[in-house]
Write a structure and sequence with these properties.
2 helices, mainly beta, 10-stranded mixed sheet, 10 strands, 188 residues, globular
């Protein structure tokens, strides 16, 4: 690619530099048609849907060994089921790596994608992430640019297992659920 008026080497460098910010094999930034909602936690008779995720570089979960200039990325979303009030919060310690490969999803500090909070309501019961059973799975992205700080946002794909504590009145139990989908994450 040659940009008129620029030497071939400089125009090639500009073209490669522009593409280097995006990961996941995409040549553009943004969610690429991923839906705004549809991250589903299901199992044990439960089905909770989350969406409206927004990313924010916050330094909330810096990853050991990461470059000192790298800012971790916090993702916040809401339960989108009618009449529900749940929240989801994830923290990505290495957004630079998420742009190019699936990362393990689990509990802090052992993984680069942490489930900070996952709670919700269903059938008159309250659900919260069970801290005694660490989540497991993977997270990946497409269209992620600027380590998640690009206003275009990106698409996040999660395939994980999470244990939820279900409290219905005075009784409680633990319910393992799968957390899966490809959803849009709005930029900061």
């Amino acid at each position: 690619m040659v940009v008129r008026g620029l030497p071939a080497g400089l125009s090639l460098g500009l073209a490669l530099g522009g593409a280097a910010g995006c990961g996941g094999g995409e040549d553009r930034c943004g969610p690429g048609g991923a839906p705004d909602s549809g991250l589903i936690a299901s199992g044990g008779g439960l089905s909770l849907t989350y969406g409206q995720l927004r990313g924010s570089p916050n330094r909330d979960c810096p990853s050991p060994g990461a470059p000192s200039s790298l800012i971790s990325l916090t993702l916040d979303g809401v339960q989108t089921d009618a009449g529900s009030t749940g929240l989801i919060t994830l923290c990505i310690g290495r957004p630079d790596l998420l742009a190019g490969q699936p990362l393990p999803l689990g509990a802090e500090p052992s993984t680069d994608v942490h489930v900070v909070d996952l709670n919700g309501t269903a059938g008159g019961c309250m659900l919260t992430v069970d801290r005694g059973s660490p989540p497991s799975g993977t997270a990946s992205s497409s269209g992620l640019c600027g380590n998640g700080s690009d206003a275009a946002g990106f698409a996040l794909t999660i395939d994980a297992t999470v244990a939820l504590t279900r409290t219905c009145g005075s009784t409680g139990d633990t319910v393992p659920v799968t957390l899966r989908a490809r959803v849009a994450v709005a930029g900061p």
